[in-house]
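User: Predict AAA domain-containing protein's structure from this.
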Amino acid sequence: MKTIAFFGIQGRTGKTTLVYHLAWMMAERGLRVMMVDLDPQADLTVWSLGKERVQDLLHQATPPTISSALAPLVQEHGNDAMPIIGERLSERIVLLPGDLGLSQYDNLLWNAWHRHVSQPPDPSAFHRMNAMNRMIQLHAQHYEVDVALVDLAPNLGAINQAALTAMDDVVFPLIPDFNSVLGLRSMGPALKDWRMAWKGMADDFAASLPANEMPRGETRPIGYVLSPISMYGNRPAANDQSTADAIEAAYVEHVTSGRPLADGANCLGQIKNYQSLVEMAREAHKPMFHLRPADGTFGGHQRAAQETHHVFAALAQRIANRAGLRFPDT
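Assistant:
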């Protein structure tokens, strides 16, 4: 099972759109996919289920959300993650819903991290930092998935810090503007620092945990996606292309430390602005490439919806190649 995080520190990068559409595309190609909504704003959950279903979940005595699953793990003595019933979106897609309750864990995880790195090894602090990994692995095994796609909040907070130590790979959704260059200058070094700190922690407890409960802390950046790109014909607008070049340079310098990829460019894909289709897809609770005239797509909208299938099929293939995933239909 592979875990792939989608991580950025800007809003409106199309991060949730990427996770949602890649999940449906990978499922179409034969993989069993688990979407994990670790953004307390829970946009992925609302898109997948709709507001009414989300309200139904939250009104239950113990909401079947990730914050409930994590609750036992953050106790001082540490229990196992509480299994929750994921939301089945299709035969091959399951969602672990997020909710605003996740935000309560940020300070707790931050304190746990600093207790462990600034004092002698602290088993309870390590247990809490490892909570995200154990929660994801528990549900991945239960649902027998091939890949978990993890939607992270746009920040450098402790929830993301704990989650990223448990990931195999990370993709950076970026906007084609100079703020993305600045963001890479922060995200690249932060990811490296977190990996190094985690390895030091893990060494203290490696002998006390089974291998599958111990993240290696070797999260591998496998590329970035630019969206939305302004297109003229089949080429990006000049301004966007100039910014894309600056982003590539920043990615190489701050994320890969100048190491080239063996199989091509760092940019996994450039996605043009499908804003009106995105809104239709959110309202219909389905991916853009599943929209039909009954959903309001006619003429140019329907052609654009069909185009998104090719766009996300190509992107899913590139990400699968980088992550070492093989589609059963190939």
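DSSP finds twelve helices and ten strands in the chain.
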